[in-house]
């Protein structure tokens, strides 16, 4: 049993007791269970999977980079943006994904590429996660 606290710049987005959390770290996915070793890790744009104590169901959130601190059975996540996948509109997510992919593939300005890569990663994570959720429903 661990406490998960996810904070955005302007508010606490999520606070709950959880059994397990899977984080999109810069080095790949990392699972966190009770009594996990203390650590601070960078988070990539991607999906956080959360399994609450009260159920065996998983909740999926899209985040745009940040940090996670794991200490004394508390996972503290600091991110700029977070969104529950179940609240994402599939058609809108698909449109943003396709337009960001097109923009990334057609832009030749190297200075703009980094911004476009970030936009593409977020759009891809939102679209693929929502599309996967639709197939489960």
UniProtKB/TrEMBL annotation:
GO MF term set: ATP binding; proton-transporting ATP synthase activity, rotational mechanism
Keywords: ATP synthesis, CF(1), Chloroplast, Hydrogen ion transport, Ion transport, Membrane, Plastid, Thylakoid, Transport
Principal cellular location given in the protein's record: membrane
Taxonomic superkingdom: Eukaryota
Kinase listed as a keyword: no
GO CC annotations, alphabetized: chloroplast thylakoid membrane; proton-transporting ATP synthase complex
Boundaries of every ATP synthase F1 complex delta/epsilon subunit N-terminal domain copy: 7-82
Membrane-spanning intervals of the chain: none
A Pfam family assignment: ATP-synt_DE_N
Keyword Electron transport: no
Subcellular location: Membrane; Plastid, Chloroplast thylakoid membrane
InterPro entries: ATP_synth_F1_dsu/esu, ATP_synth_F1_dsu/esu_N, ATPsynth_dsu/esu_N
Membrane-topology descriptor: Peripheral membrane protein
SUPFAM superfamilies (UniProt xref): Epsilon subunit of F1F0-ATP synthase N-terminal domain
Quaternary assembly: F-type ATPases have 2 components, CF(1) - the catalytic core - and CF(0) - the membrane proton channel. CF(1) has five subunits: alpha(3), beta(3), gamma(1), delta(1), epsilon(1). CF(0) has three main subunits: a, b and c.
Known role: Produces ATP from ADP in the presence of a proton gradient across the membrane.
HAMAP family with a match to the protein in the record: ATP_synth_epsil_bac (MF_00530)
Annotated family: Belongs to the ATPase epsilon chain family.
Alphabetical list of NCBIfam families matching this protein: ATP_synt_epsi
Protein name: ATP synthase epsilon chain, chloroplastic
Gene source species: Euglena hiemalis
Gene that produces this protein: atp E
